[in-house]
Amino acid sequence: MDSKKIKKLNKKKAKGTLVNTSIYVQGLPKDITFEEMKYFFGRGGIIKIDPTTLSPKIKLYNDELTKEFSGNALVVYKYEQSIELALKYLNETEIRPGFKVKIEKAIFNKSSKSNIAPLSETEINKKRKQLKAAEMEEERLLSWSNEQHSLNSNIASRIVVLRPMYSRKEAEMYPEGDDFYSELEIEVQEEVTKYCEVVSVTCIPRHPQGIVCVKLKSQHDAEIVIDIFNQRYFDGRQIEVHMYDGSTDFKASCI
């Protein structure tokens, strides 16, 4: 690679517009563990993978005077929507009994990024390999598909399953064809459409686990829905969202 191409890559890197997906956290216990951080903040969505360490991007800040952990940290999510979820569901909640965390969207000093050191060809290639490894790790974390259903993977990877969107009592109460199910489909579609394009919503009537399936335009959109809605609360119930496996017949389990 000649010097002109290297300069072009560095210039592109310096001028590229980056989306802020980071939150700043205060009030953490001084002995907080990395695993606790991953579990708690993972409830807001997929945490971005650090290309260098291949670990979730969580930075703990030390006090400038004591050099001990200050109780403050930076968490970098994969998607921007996760900031909204963290602020809504994790802010002012206890990560441990007696330790209520304060969360805000991270603000970076733009002036500190004005002079970016140019990279050599070797450094650029190294960065590319690190980024590729990080992308593969993120794909592994987001993958819900079963390899044995590879023939259906193209369609299945665009369908997400939400449960329980209604209770067993409601499943026993409302027969198939009742307006309850169509109204639930409309409600789910309106909510998911806020984040990505919905192809269709199918509520499985009288399923003991309250199953609703949402078909998206792309696998990327399906991953976003999982990231945003998994572990959120709906009508007082914490819902689980995952990719459809391509073979399960939900209707076979209906009451």
From TrEMBL:
Signal peptide stretch: none
Swiss-Prot/TrEMBL keywords: RNA-binding
GO molecular function: RNA binding
Gene Ontology annotations for the cellular component aspect, listed alphabetically: U2 snRNP; U2-type spliceosomal complex
InterPro entries hit by this protein: Nucleotide-bd_a/b_plait_sf (IPR012677), RBD_domain_sf (IPR035979), RRM_dom (IPR000504), TatSF1-like (IPR034393)
Record Gene3D superfamilies: 3.30.70.330
Alphabetical list of Pfam families matching this protein: RRM_1
Ranges of residues in domain RRM: 21-108
KW RNA-binding (keyword) present: yes
PANTHER family in the cross-refs: HIV TAT-SPECIFIC FACTOR 1 (PTHR15608:SF0), SPLICING FACTOR U2AF-ASSOCIATED PROTEIN 2 (PTHR15608)
Protein name, as recorded: RRM domain-containing protein
